Amino acid sequence: MGRRHSHHASGAPGGGGSAAPPGNTALPQPAPIQSPTRDISPSAPALADRDVLVRIRGLRFSHGTRVIFDGVDLDVRRGAVTAVMGPSGTGKTTLLRLISGQLHPDAGSIEVDGEPVQALKRSDLFRLRRRMGMLFQSGALLTDLSVFDNVAYPLREHTGLSESMVRKLVLLKLEAVGLRGARDMMPSALSGGMARRVALARAIALDPMMILYDEPFTGQDPISMGVLVTLIRQLNDASRLTSILVSHDVRETASIADEIYVISNGRVVARGTPEEIAAERSEWVRQFMDGLPDGPVRFHHPAPPLAEDLLTKGSG
Predict the structure, then answer these.
(1) Three-class SS state of 284
(2) Cα–Cα distance for residue pair 273/264, rounded to 1 Å
């Protein structure tokens, strides 16, 4: 088991844009929220190319008129657990989709193992994706297949291995997540924690170089969450993987991460080890890490003064 760190409990409200006023009622315009402008680069020397598995530079991406990323730089070190954290709606899952080539950036570059993801041909992108495992937030098990067949699916789809070899590999992967004895169960009979562990066994079926975790702790009871935390760290170290974990569960994520990026308002607002993030005094970081209800991410959605709103006739 890797290092464990003591951190504050999680929880942070989501942000949002301005609401349209009824009729010609003028809304008070709040001062724009500015991301910190200080240099957030770590004091350590820049990582050598051979030490970086994923390198992102100047990433810009928008959904329509909404800016998701506005000049993000990010390095994922080989063999490390790198966490990307931030309030809901900051694009954490979108980042995973950009890294895996499911989405294309508006500007900037994304390199995985030295390959420019957005410039790859379709066949080369599929080849690269086979070297990535993905643990979806929902688990995404195939409901009509047994636990065994769910884990066997990528092996049967992407390799020419004999059924005898597939069986051995599936049993080894299920043993790694403690569910070899559940191989004949159907997904509908699994608890939420068991389903997430089966999905993890499937994610490592092809022995990937990297696993992308999309909110792995969401909806888990404390015991299941503790099991997943331990598994992620142990699998990363024992299998010499690289892990990218996006989450808003502060304590659990900080306990296994080697490095944390905190993203808010389209930018990286902090980067460092869990200890460095715990000592960070930025209002953006402290609001998220300490679960404060108000701060740079406002508790109140922009609105007219309450007295004015109460006196205004309308359907809302």
Answers:
(1) helix
(2) 18
Q: Are 207 and 130 in contact (CB under 8 A)?
A: no
- Average the pLDDT over 24-48 and give the result: 44
Round to whole Å and give the CA distance between 196 and 253. Answer: 16
What residue ranges in the chain does DSSP mark as E strands? 52-63, 66-77, 81-85, 107-112, 115-116, 132-135, 210-214, 242-247, 259-264, 267-272
Which stretch, 5-14, 123-132, 133-142, 301-310, has highest mean pLDDT? 123-132
Q: How is domain 50-131+210-230+242-293 classified at the CATH fold level?
A: Rossmann fold (3.40.50)
Comparing C-alpha atoms, which of 38, 47, 44, 70 is closest to residue 270? 38
**The pairing of beta strand 115-116 with beta strand 132-135:** unpaired
Tokens representing 36?
């910190």
Domain ranges in the chain?
50-131+210-230+242-293, 139-207
Q: Whole-model pTM?
A: 0.75
Residue whose entry in the numeric block shows the structure tokens 């299920």: 174
Q: What DSSP letter does each residue of 52-102 carry, written as one string?
A: EEEEEEEEEEEETTEEEEEEEEEEEETT-EEEEE-STTSSHHHHHHHHTTS
Least confident residue range of 193-197, 241-245, 276-280: 276-280
Q: What's the chain's length in residues?
A: 316
